[in-house]
Amino acid sequence: MLPFPRIIQYGNNAQTGHYVLNLDFTRQTVGDTNIIDYSSNTHTFTKLNTGQANIVLDSTLGTNVMYFNGAVFSTPMVSDLQLVSKYFEIDVVYKSFSNAIQVLYGTGYYPDVTNRIGGICHQIKQYDGNDQYFIDDGTTFNRNLLPSSTEAQWQRLVYSRTSSGVNIKRYRNGTLINQANFADYPYANGTSFGVGGYYKTPTNYLFYGYMQYLKVKVF
Fold first, then answer.
1. Cα–chain-centroid distance for residue 114?
2. Ranges of the chain whose pLDDT falls below 50
3. Cβ(203)–Cβ(102) under 8 Å?
4. What is the DSSP secondary-structure string of 134-153?
5. Within 10 Å of residue 158's Cβ, how many Cβ atoms?
6. I need a labelling partner for 37 at 20 to 30 A (CA). Which of 22, 75, 77, 130 fits?
7. What is the pLDDT of residues 105-119, one digit of tens each?
8. How many CB atoms are located within 10 Å of the residue 8 CB?
């Protein structure tokens, strides 16, 4: 059997489409504190708060990963990252060591009406440990929930939007644990693409854990 890191890479390479965002922390150097986009678009990410983040070697995966300790990064919402009219896949591998509600990444913001921004947001630890994709068009919102999240274990979440609707899959150690299908609910493009928390308020719902990669592919 292929080891876990290589299963992940094999799965990515087998698919068609092209990356509009490719945050592959396995390619960065231990000690790096920035985020590098390896897609052809080379989006520049800016850290928004005083939280810490740095590249470390993970002994379980055998690769470098980004350790997030409350750091939030963002890049402007340019046309190639606008997903409203596109079929796409968002693929992330993460491990959290906190049981609090956290944001892995997102294009919108919804916790308060005054600052609301329509978009997509991937939260973790919602409703007894669910991964939640909050889908918001600025007026109406929907929740895509996937149960069976496990604290302190590496897991891979793949969110796919196709002509048939939305499918979400969870993998652990290269094995599919569970999945769910949803209607293609409406949402907006947002104003930035944030990683590690909400770019609108980079002091709330911060991510405490590790991320191997975060990739957005369009078809």
1. 25
2. 1-14
3. no
4. EEE-SS-EEEEEE----TTS
5. 20
6. 130
7. 999 998 888 889 999
8. 22
pLDDT of the residue at 129: 83
DSSP letter string over 10-29? HHHHTS-SEEEEEEEGGGSP
Q: How many CA atoms lie within 13 A of 49 on its CB side?
A: 23
How distant is the alpha carbon of residue 42 from its chain centre? 17
Tokens read off for 82: 């606008």
HSE, CB side, 13 Å, CA atoms: give it for residue 135: 16
Backbone angles phi and psi of 11, in degrees to 5: -60, -40
Name the DSSP letter for residue 120: E
The one-letter code for the residue type at 15 is Q
User: Which residue, 32, 15, 48, is CA-closest to 158?
Assistant: 15
pTM of the model: 0.91
CA distance between the termini of the chain: 29
* Structure token digits, residue 64: 């470098």
Nearby residues of 14 by Cβ (< 8 Å), 6 or more positions away: none
Question: b/e for 91-125, b at 16 or more Cβ within 10 A?
Answer: bbbbbbeeeeebbbbbbbbbeeeeebbbbbbbbbb
User: How far apart are the C-alpha atoms of 6 and 19, rounded to whole Å?
Assistant: 19
Nearest of 102, 133, 136, 132 to residue 116 by alpha carbon = 136
* Both structure tokens of 166: 């939305």
Structure tokens at 189: 């493009």
